[in-house]
Amino acid sequence: MARQALGAALVGFGYWGPNLARNLSASADFDLLHICDLSPGRVAAARGLYPAVDCGSDASHAIGDDAVDAVFVATPAVVHHRLAVQAIEAGKHVLVEKPLTLDAATSDDLVARAAGRGVVLAVDHTFVYTGAVQKLRDLVNEGDLGDLRSFDSMRVNLGIVQPDVDVFWDLAVHDLSILQYVTDRTPVSVSATGMAHAPSTHASTAYMTLFYEDDFIAHVDVSWMSPVKVRRTLLAGTRRMVVYDDLEPSEKVKVYDAGVDSPETSEERHSTMVSYRTGDMIAPKLDSNEALSTEIAHLAECIRGNSVPRASGAMGASIVRTLEAATVSMARRGAPVDLKAI
Description:
Strand order of the largest sheet: 14-13-12-11-7-10-9-8-15
Radius of gyration: 22 Å
Strand content: 25-35%
CATH topology of the largest domain: Dihydrodipicolinate Reductase, domain 2
Order of helices and strands: EHEHEHEHEHEHEHEEEEEEHEHHE
């Protein structure tokens, strides 16, 4: 017997909203009932693409519809908290576009409200639903990489300069979600530097270093001002190392049997001799399904009580806290900021 589709309302039909609408309308798990946007032009565009869907500007009407089970928020981040609170208090499950909110306090508030109402709160960190990032997590969990040592990510391009947030909140949020999902670790402190270059009024090139309780370290390099587009991550362990290049058309993940072997004898340790190991490279087969489609199907399973979100509200709040600490550190020209202070 076929499962009954869940009613969905989409709030926001700007940059990311059309992608959500396309996947929701194609999903067997959801019935897209409402699309809302404050722009009359965007409402008209939505109505032209989805004539059977109620399209308008009144988000309260859509959220209050008893037939709606889940609300998808794809608006500017400044209104994420208000809309998510409205949906949660109406007893709706919620998926919020990244970042969850613009500060840790309001993110924590959403997590607490969702727990209190018994609804699912998920964040649209789409990369954690890609086959490549799932493979990275599997390699870590299965011990193929050994003990993790470092994470180094570069996400740069001559890109769209955002008027309301800096490059950390626009680009580094992706790398932080990948980092946390793959390693299942949260940093204890953050150091960040960056600079605004015209026409941006916010930091357009920035660097973040994340420190952990052990000797693991992570670095994220992001920029809107690069002549080339780079989307590359290196994850190094004591046994193997992985390069994840999101721009590669086929071999996005490459696993290298390479590393540094510790000296075994006291004589070698005394002479600080180091043995470098280089072996084969393999490119594992990856799930090629569209990440957003996978995410929406997974959210339906979570709402039905069969799973928990890969990018939960708690994970989204943790990433917001890291971003907020990075913003403080950048204002202090790189002085480390303890995450507990945020």
